[in-house]
Amino acid sequence: MLSSRTRRLAASSCLGVLVWVHLSTRALAEENEIRISGSAAAIENVFRRIKAPFEKATQIKLVLNTVSPIQALQDLDEEKIEAASEALEIMAWLDLMRKENSAIVNPGAYKHRVVGRDRIQVVCNRSVSPVAKLSAEQLTGIFTGKIHNWKEVGGPEQPIRVVYNGQEPGMHRLWQQRVMEGADWSSSRKDLAPGEDVRKVVAATAGAVAIVPLGLREPYLHVPETPDVGRPITVVTKGIPSDAMLKLYEFLAGEGQKLVLK
Fold first, then answer.
1. Could you tell me the mean pLDDT of each successive run of 10 residues in the chain, 262 residues long?
2. Is there a domain that residue 21 lies in?
3. 168-188 pLDDT tens trace
4. Is 200 within the bounds of a domain?
5. What pTM does this model have?
6. 81 with 209, same domain?
7. Closest CA to 62 of 254, 248, 256
8. Is 135 in the same domain as 212?
């Protein structure tokens, strides 16, 4: 019959083995999986497009989650994900975090790379399809509310409805700076509720207009010609990138360049 001391030693050994197995399994899972959170521009323009071929080539699974840039960096800071991505320069992203009272305590711990480029697109309801082109001056008037009707820019007799997606603060801030010359957004704009799809709202609302990342333009929306407003797509990791992340970067620099939107 085993003594109580022997039984305790055996139980301790078994527990040690179980812990080792759990940690080893977790480490193996992390080596074969990359969790990325980011804005729609980053996820749809880049990572959704390379997901299948990257997984086939490397056997590393990409787990993608579309969130606000604020949430993405918060998740990275709490080490819930391996990488965060947004269509902003890194300093502009950190500045946005500060302005939203979500400043990163130790920004020096973060490493970043630019992996692509987004173009901000103006999308309209099909009811204003006669409007083929909009200048920067006309866009300023539309999004500030100084131009009230599409007939003022060569379109039909139709009130303009500006749709604003608060889940993309970086995109709207950049548009406000580069196109609207810092002016305020239209006071009559329609703010989307969390989870609402800006494309569906624009498609269902006569006279509606909004801005979206390049990857979110749809054939059922009217896309007039507008001045080019581009921005880099940045990926951020906390600390030195893992081996799996380095493989992702390598894929993006090579075969992935043929797949991402530019």
1. 50 43 38 92 94 97 94 94 94 90 87 94 96 96 97 97 91 92 94 91 97 88 95 94 96 93 76
2. no
3. 888 998 999 999 999 999 999
4. yes
5. 0.76
6. no
7. 248
8. yes
How are beta strands 33-38 and 61-66 bridged, if at all? Answer: parallel
Residue 17 forms part of a structural domain: no
3-state SS of 63-82 is: EEEECCHHHHHHHHHCCCCC
Residue 131 structural domain: 121-228
Could you tell me if residue 68 is left (phi over 0), alpha (psi between -120 and 50 degrees) or otherwise beta? beta
- List residues bridging with 212 in a β-sheet: 121
What is the residue type of 140?
A: T
Strands (E), the chain: 33-38, 61-66, 83-86, 110-119, 121-124, 161-164, 190-191, 208-212, 230-238
pLDDT at 47: 96
147 & 178 share domain: yes
Strand 230-238 and strand 61-66: pairing?
A: unpaired
Q: What number of helices (H) and strands (E) belong to the chain?
A: 9, 9
